[in-house]
Amino acid sequence: MALFNFKKSEGPDAGRLSPEVESFLQGYSIEVMPRTAAKVDNFGDILPEGTRVYIAHIEGTPIEDMVDTAKRLNAEGFDVMPHFPARIIKDASTLQDWIARYQGEANVDQALLLAGGVTTPHGDFDSSMQLLETGAFDAAGFKHLHVAGHPEGNKDIDPDGSMKNVDDALRWKQDFSTRTDAKMALATQFAFEAGPIIEWADALKAAGIDLPIHIGIAGPAKLQTMIKFAIACGVGPSLRVLQRRAKDVTKLLLPFEPTEVISELAAHKAANPDFNIAQVHFFPLGGIKTNANWAIENGGAAATPKNA
């Protein structure tokens, strides 16, 4: 597949951004943690107003830190979506308390529900489906409920390397979306190859799963950093993109940027407007400022209001 360059370097159009990539990056979201957010003096200096900011809830992070970060981001004009990892939520009472805190203190009305990276649940919940079944988010009037997607599978869910349990869960979530008023979307793990992402997204649609996809993309980072996070997060076959580059020792300390995967996805979206990837979701592995600056330099801007 031919690639669109972000910036043309020759002729009268030199310096212009690719309109396909600009369009694809509109409304991008980004992920932070309380400790990484604390390093940013003012998000308004680096993110377009209204950008959706996910707040990752890592095991051991106090809920107070999560809510304080959400409150700050909301006050600075951003669309806040905290994680609710099922396996670190003790019980329904704890879930309701978290929802009430986010809602009452930080004006949050949306959430990313996921199992979480904990092997043994801390309490009653094991999956995002169980969180949805409580009805707590609907009762609180949450408008957007996102769930996890795995373009390359998830060996914690399917140890045999298949997609069976992952796909069964997606069918359940599709049905939940259909029979409720929840506005749902899939926020995915990051991957490094466009071809398998396109095949996965098209296969979901063919199977009747039409939830909008917010595709996970790893932001610019040193190659060694990228490989470390990719292995820790269980990235699948597309890890070979990094491994091939790592064979060239001259590139080990250079930033790895998502130019190729984004330009190929943008080209596919331009040629197939009904392609079900709706937005880009950045994992800022090389730092929030680095990722935000890269996105803006390459045409990205947040679009509001968001529909998914």
Automatic annotation (TrEMBL):
InterPro entries given in the database record: FAD-linked_oxidoreductase-like (IPR029041)
Keywords for the protein's UniProt record, in alphabetical order: Oxidoreductase
Domain of life where this protein originates: Bacteria
GO molecular function terms attached to this record: oxidoreductase activity
Listed name of the protein: Methylenetetrahydrofolate reductase (NAD(P)H)
Organism from which the protein derives: Ascidiaceihabitans donghaensis
